[in-house]
Amino acid sequence: MGSRFLCRKVQNTNVITSSLTSWEDTDGSFCLFNDDSELSLSEQPLGDLLYQAGTSSAVWAIGSNAICKVKTWTNGMDMESDTLAFVKANFPNIPVPDIIYAWLDEKLSRSFLILKRVQGNTLAQVWPSLTPEKRDGIASAVAQFCFELTNLTSNKFQSATGHGVLEPFMNVRAKDSHPSWKPRLLGPMSASSHQSYLQRISRIYKPPVTTAFHFYHADLGPTNLLISDDGKIKAILDWESAGFYPKYWVTLKPYMSLGFCLPAADDRYAWADLLPAKLAEMGFVLDMADVAWYKALDLSFLDTDMFRDG
């Protein structure tokens, strides 16, 4: 797995004790070993490819009970495992997958995250079969989770652990020489620096920035919500963009991002409409002036490091 570790399915408990970590599967156990192990390891793929986004990220199944998520990484970027640990420590009632093992492969500029597999289907998959009441209940639950998350604030625009934020929708375009696969971070920024950044990219009115930034998942689209057979939220996935954001971003992001759309054409914007409606009940009301501001942004390249604090 990457350039550092090897993974193998075993039945021998003596082998398990010599591994870095292990987890049970339906008919044996999977173990992770250093790549200098003298064990004879199969070079066959361990599981099915579940998801791939070009060369930037992919998710594989490892047996029946685990997945491995591989993501491109750049210097100063949070690992998703750190964000998940942060969420578990601060919001124990919010359902997130359990971490088995995580590491950074600097040689490949990739982060690796092995998670316990959560059984369920994405909201995008089950949406057509849900009753209006079930859809409404899921949206209310997600809005409540958002409300709880945003009660935690910071005096900086930053990631969970104080680094730059991975939010392409708030970032300017990359310069032509920047590798397309390489993530670009924004921040961290103090309130005054963030205000200066917005001033630089704004053509018209810009939303106010207070001294408090609110913790927010920032990608609560229908493919990142796992739903049980009875219509409950089993897990919220993909926390790599989570961080402390201006309050207006909580409602503006669902409106602007196609990631909140459903696959079926006749229901395409149903989730993108329903979630903000429930957020409004929690006090997060979409201001159409913010929408007009965002659509008019000048996102041509500039050196965002000049606004960076820390």
Automatic annotation (TrEMBL):
It comes from the Eukaryota. CDD domains: APH_ChoK_like. InterPro entries: AGP_Transferase, Aminoglycoside_PTrfase, Kinase-like_dom_sf. Pfam families: APH. Residues 78-245 form the Aminoglycoside phosphotransferase domain. PANTHER family: AMINOGLYCOSIDE PHOSPHOTRANSFERASE DOMAIN-CONTAINING PROTEIN, AMINOGLYCOSIDE PHOSPHOTRANSFERASE-RELATED-RELATED. This is Uncharacterized protein YcbJ.
